[in-house]
């Protein structure tokens, strides 16, 4: 007899949705989360494309509601670090955490993804002293100041717009002359007079004394390098999946994302993956919650018919 039917690793939209579906199916469910439930979505100022909220909904509110709803059906998050997951010879899985060991019939990996660093001089040194990966968390520190946002995807453009609530000037620095971000966001950013675009350019250095004072920006077409005075740098150049623990355990692609089938089944029977952690064409809250629901139903079927 295992301790649980389902162990869910990660408390973002995918994990909370998996928890909701698993608990409603009366599976003995535990959700393991390293920090606060909500994942990356709770660090997003406003989510405008989650259906059902015509005026958008702040990321923290949406995630708090998902957490409350999952708990209402009996999901009890445990705040702990997962150290390893292994198969038990007699069936099921052993999950070692910083607070002890848990046995389970199935595992749903919903560990999400983490911000990718630029990997340039000064970035690590000034992390938390002007270098940030979360505008929602740190934007308010830059009231009336100048900040740079690096990247050309939805995150960089959306968070740049958000930062104009505080900063008097926001530079968006992108390495190409075209954005990856959706047109709606681009148009919103272009209409905002506080935002200035620095295209075809990369940041090569973050400089300062106690705090960030400037960045060096290199134009990739002309080769010209210049200093831009800023008080903060927000890095939004994509994410890497949180899959270090699982790469020997389930198949991943060349970027480390877990490969699943349409039922969220990984290469190891009884282990499922959902949300940003898996190889998928679209990483949004709406796809993460859908993945979580499918993974939970698949886990239920696995317990019922396979084991
Ligand atoms: P992303 O779409 O992967 O964009 C990353 C951006 O960073 C790209 O523009 C990329 O440039 C640039 N980049 C990558 N490595 C770089 C480097 N070393 N130096 C400089 N620039 C670099 O990541 P994201 O914006 O975080 O979005 C992740 C996912 O979440 C996407 O699927 C996105 O649609 C979704 N998302 C959606 C919303 C929304 O719908 N409101 C909001 C946030 C995020 P290139 O373009 O040249 O590759």
What does this structure look like?
There is one protein chain. With 307 residues, the protein is an alpha/beta fold. The chain folds into two domains: 179 residues, FAD/NAD(P)-binding domain (3-Layer(bba) Sandwich), CATH 3.50.50.60; 119 residues, FAD/NAD(P)-binding domain (3-Layer(bba) Sandwich), CATH 3.50.50.60. It is built from six helices and 17 strands. The strands form four sheets. Strands 1, 2, 3, 4, 5, 6 and 17 form a seven-stranded mixed β-sheet that branches. Strands 8-15-9-10-11 form a five-stranded parallel β-sheet, covered by helices on one side. Strands 12-13-14 form a three-stranded antiparallel β-sheet, with no helix packed on it. It is elongated. The two termini are 12 Å apart. Bound molecules: NADP nicotinamide-adenine-dinucleotide phosphate. The site of NADP nicotinamide-adenine-dinucleotide phosphate has 20 residues, from helix 4.
Query: What is the β-strand count?
Result: 17
Shape category: elongated
What do we call the CATH homologous superfamily of the largest domain?
FAD/NAD(P)-binding domain
Spans of at least 5 consecutive residues whose pLDDT stays below 50 are none
Compute the CA-based radius of gyration.
Answer: 21 Å
Helix content: 10-25%
What pattern of helices and strands is seen along the backbone? EHEHEEEEEEHEHEHEEEEEEEH
The SS-based structural class is alpha/beta
Shape-level CATH architecture of the largest domain: 3-Layer(bba) Sandwich
- Give average pLDDT, whole number: 96
For the largest beta-sheet, the strand count, sense and barrel status come to: 7 strands, mixed
Bound molecules: NADP nicotinamide-adenine-dinucleotide phosphate
CATH topology of the largest domain, by name, is FAD/NAD(P)-binding domain
Count up the domains. 2
- Assigned CATH class of the largest domain: Alpha Beta
Number of helices: 6
Assembly context of the chains: single chain
Euclidean distance between termini CA atoms: 12 Å
> Roughly what fraction of the amino acids lie in strands?
25-35%
